[in-house]
Amino acid sequence: MPGGMTETRFWLIRHAIVEENARTKIYGTMDVELCPHSLAAQVPMYQALARRLPRPARWLASPLSRTQRTAAAIFAAGYPEQALTIEPELIELAFGDWQGLPHDEITPLLRQKAHAFWLLSGEERPPGGESMADGIARLGGALERLARQHAGHDVIAVSHGGAIRAAVAHALRISADTALHLSVENISLTRLDRTPLGWRVVCVNELPGV
């Protein structure tokens, strides 16, 4: 391969659905619980995901418990249990002072028009938080570092919807507003490969067993 580089394959999984009360608010980097009813109902999807993922692989998760519990659910569904490395840069986009607010209280606070598919535009930065553009820069740097660190390996990373959109945006070199058009559902799989020739997007928002 050019320059002696090898391919690194990233398997990005969005965490499971969070509990009902948390879903009424902007939770961002808050550490909220998963929905126990959804975890039980979606066991067949976790089993399909466990079969779909590569073995062996290196496992990463964000610092928030919902990603680590999602990984545990995949292990319980049939993937051999692995040690999880906590990767701080995989954390969700931070909403700063707006975290914990109900969704309908955000609109009066905006300085720019909201995006068609999200509460904020791609460039809007909440006070003390991150914009999607900030997230793309953060996740892009993290992916490049992790690709070098795990060169030649499969890397399974349990992360968050905003973070995965940002990762895809980095791979495709698209704008923050364009990235917000991407759908990344809970426990969906997104695959990005870092090749010697650049990034390749294999799939986005693949739902296990569907």
What does the secondary structure layout of this molecule look like, with pairings?
Elements lengths: L7 E7 L5 H4 L12 H6 L1 H10 L5 E4 L3 H12 L7 E3 L45 H18 L4 E6 L1 H12 L3 H4 L9 E7 L2 E9 L4
Parallel strand pairs: 1-4, 2-3, 2-4
Antiparallel strand pairs: 1-5, 5-6
Helix pairs in contact: 5-6
CATH H-level superfamily: Phosphoglycerate mutase-like
Query: What structural class is derived from the secondary structure elements?
Result: alpha/beta
Number of strands: 6
* CATH architecture identity: 3-Layer(aba) Sandwich
Count of the domains: 1
Find the CATH topology. Answer: Rossmann fold
Rg over CA atoms: 17 Å
Instruction: Using the alpha-carbon principal axes, give the shape.
Output: globular
C-alpha end-to-end distance: 35 Å
Query: Roughly what percent helix?
Result: 25-40%
The low-confidence parts are none
Strand content: 15-25%
* CATH class call: Alpha Beta
Mean pLDDT across every amino acid position:
95
Strand order within the widest beta sheet: 3-2-4-1-5-6
Specify the biggest β-sheet. 6 strands, mixed
H/E element order: EHHHEHEHEHHEE
SS element count, helices? 7
